[in-house]
């Protein structure tokens, strides 16, 4: 039987592991054995605002697991070069070769919107680990399902809801992922992701600011009243969150 010193040392090592991977909830939720095996191919990097992680048609060679406050947008790119956001990934998930094996040509463009740290692992290594550890494969498959739901809801939201409602939905998601009341994002970047003119987003932001819900500064949006922001958003935010929690309760706060 292990003595108290051995147990204390074991607990300390477990705590260090938890702290190391707590930056990404999906990584932290992996089965212990799978996470231990994966770490040999895992590295931590700093992502810069505007950095393109992969582009349309490129073979996706790396999987990224963002840590707070990092946020990466998955964009659909038109023939004219316009970009519209299809989904956003933060500390709750991963992007790039999540479930597919072999060649992984990217359908969209992945661009860093809020800079910060992220874990990176070669997709080939991730494929190998999913085959070795069924629990890991199940976790990533459920996450991919949640991502599809987010994209489906975004399509409905863009077609049916006002700019103000959509703006509130996006700010709520950004607030969740940043872990801070101040979201480091320009109104121009938000307009690009929503597929609208910057003046349109500026007008919506002015209304929210006048009502004491947010405070905008250069390159920053501060959330002043979360409850009011939730009331002004459409139902899309709540529906996506509820589906996410049903699929992946172990990675929710």
Structure classification: alpha+beta
Briefly note the CATH topology name of the largest domain. Jelly Rolls
Second rung of CATH, namely the architecture of the largest domain = Sandwich
| Run of helices and strands | HHHEEEEEEEHHHEHHEEHH
Q: Between the first and last Cα atoms, what is the distance in angstroms? A: 35 Å
Give the amount of beta strand, in percent: 15-25%
Low-confidence stretches: 13-18
Report the major sheet: 4 strands, antiparallel
**Beta strands, count:** 10
Give the overall average pLDDT: 86
CATH superfamily of the largest domain: Jelly Rolls
| Biggest β-sheet: strands ordered side by side in the sheet | 2-6-4-5
Q: Can you give the helix content as a percent range?
A: 40-55%
Secondary structure layout plus pairing:
Layout: H1 4-21, H2 25-28, H3 32-38, E1 43-47, E2 52-54, E3 62-66, E4 71-77, E5 83-89, E6 109-114, E7 116-122, H4 123-132, H5 134-160, H6 163-178, E8 182-183, H7 187-194, H8 198-210, E9 214-217, E10 220-223, H9 226-232, H10 236-247
């Amino acid at each position: 039987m292990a003595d108290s010193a051995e147990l204390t040392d074991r607990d300390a090592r477990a705590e260090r592991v938890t702290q190391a991977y707590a930056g990404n909830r999906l990584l932290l939720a992996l089965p212990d054995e799978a996470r231990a095996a994966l770490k040999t191919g895992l590295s931590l990097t700093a992502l810069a605002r505007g950095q393109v992680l992969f582009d349309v048609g490129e073979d996706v060679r790396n999987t990224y697991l963002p840590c707070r406050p990092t946020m990466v947008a998955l964009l659909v790119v038109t023939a004219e070069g316009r970009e519209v956001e299809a989904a956003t990934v933060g500390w709750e998930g991963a992007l790039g070769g999540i479930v597919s094996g072999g060649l992984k040509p990217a359908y969209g463009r992945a661009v860093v919107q809020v800079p910060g740290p992220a874990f990176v692992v070669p997709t080939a290594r991730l494929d190998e680990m999913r085959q070795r550890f069924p629990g890991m494969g199940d976790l990533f498959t459920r996450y991919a399902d949640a991502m599809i739901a987010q994209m489906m809801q975004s399509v409905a939201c863009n077609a049916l809801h006002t700019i103000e409602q959509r703006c509130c939905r996006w700010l709520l998601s950004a607030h969740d992922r940043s872990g801070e009341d101040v979201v480091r994002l320009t109104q121009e970047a938000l307009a690009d992701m929503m597929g609208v003119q910057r003046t349109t987003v500026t007008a919506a932001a002015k209304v929210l600011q006048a009502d004491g819900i947010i405070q905008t500064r250069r390159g920053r949006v501060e959330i002043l009243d979360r409850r009011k922001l939730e009331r002004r958003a459409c139902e899309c935010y709540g529906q996506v969150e509820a589906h996410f929690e049903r699929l992946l309760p172990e990675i929710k706060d």
